[in-house]
């Protein structure tokens, strides 16, 4: 019997490599972490990871391919995602210019649930995640080779060839989601640790999150308009 550990470890690296780079999901996680606490940040990441699990199942059953096959449906989803990003960017900007108050313990669960819903909806309307599961993601369970680090956002071309693994093992998928889980729990913890050391950290993070969300929101809306016209 083949040792599943190398595939599991490669999946962890793959999940971390895809989850860590800056983007709208990490912007929402960071903003929720500084304003509503670690639990809210972790639950926000869980919302994005839940969407990935749905995309995995949808890819296997052809649902994701259906969305990509009809440009109008895809454009509608992207437009909704862009609008939501701009809306959440406004909320983050409001937090940046105001005083971020600690969340009372009796309200932590409610704030955590809100973060989960925000990230879940954003992830479901994210064309980059749809494209990932249409191409690379659905192939993780098919026999073949995967250049893991070459798909890392922004720096993939520089890392190509460093970690090539065989696909087709369930351990690879398990490791992939373990890697994401490590990021969505560790990243909010790091944000909160930095916040305790730097008094002005929360407004800076909230402002940065607002800029990232606004930028991606504009890109998504432009993409949707171009597709429809």
Write the layout of secondary structure elements.
Elements: H1 5-19, H2 24-36, H3 38-60, H4 63-69, H5 71-97, H6 108-124, H7 127-135, E1 144-147, H8 156-159, E2 164-167, H9 170-197, H10 201-228
Antiparallel strand pairs: 1-2
Describe the structure.
This protein has 229 residues and is mainly alpha-helical. It has one domain. It has ten helices and two strands; from the N terminus they run H-H-H-H-H-H-H-E-H-E-H-H. The protein has helices at residues 5-19, 24-36, 38-60, 63-69, 71-97, 108-124, 127-135, 156-159, 170-197, 201-228, and strands spanning 144-147, 164-167. A two-stranded antiparallel ribbon has the order 1-2. The chain is globular. The N and C termini lie far apart (54 Å). The mean pLDDT is 80.
Give the overall silhouette: globular
* Most strands sheet: 2 strands, antiparallel
Distance between the termini: 54 Å
What fraction of the residues are assigned to beta strands by DSSP?
under 5%
- Total count of strands: 2
Backbone structural class? mainly alpha
Low-confidence stretches: none
Strand order of the largest sheet: 1-2
- Radius of gyration, in Å, reads 18 Å
Question: Helicity range of the residues?
Answer: over 70%
Number of domains: 1
- Please state the average pLDDT score: 80
User: Helices and strands, in N-to-C order?
Assistant: HHHHHHHEHEHH
């Amino acid at each position: 019997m083949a040792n599943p550990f190398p595939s599991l470890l490669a999946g962890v690296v793959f999940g971390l490599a895809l989850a860590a780079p800056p983007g709208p999901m990490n912007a929402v996680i960071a903003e929720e972490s500084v304003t509503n606490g670690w639990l809210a940040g972790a639950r926000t990441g869980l919302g994005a990871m839940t969407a990935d699990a749905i995309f995995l199942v949808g890819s296997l059953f052809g649902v994701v391919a259906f969305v990509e096959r009809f440009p109008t449906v895809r454009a509608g989803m992207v437009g909704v995602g862009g609008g939501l990003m701009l809306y959440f960017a406004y909320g983050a900007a409001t937090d940046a210019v105001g005083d971020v108050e600690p969340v009372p313990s009796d309200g932590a669960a409610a704030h955590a649930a809100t973060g989960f819903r925000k990230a879940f909806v954003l992830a479901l309307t994210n064309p980059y995640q749809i494209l990932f599961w249409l191409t690379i993601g659905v192939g993780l369970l098919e026999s073949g080779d995967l250049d893991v680090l070459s798909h890392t956002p922004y720096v993939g071309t520089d890392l190509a060839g460093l970690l090539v693994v065989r696909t087709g093992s369930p351990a690879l998928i398990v490791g992939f989601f373990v890697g994401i889980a490590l990021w969505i729990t560790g990243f909010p913890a790091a944000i909160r640790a930095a916040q305790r050391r730097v008094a002005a950290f929360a407004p800076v993070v909230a402002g940065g999150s607002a800029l990232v969300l606004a930028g991606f929101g504009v890109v998504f809306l432009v993409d949707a308009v171009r597709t429809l016209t």
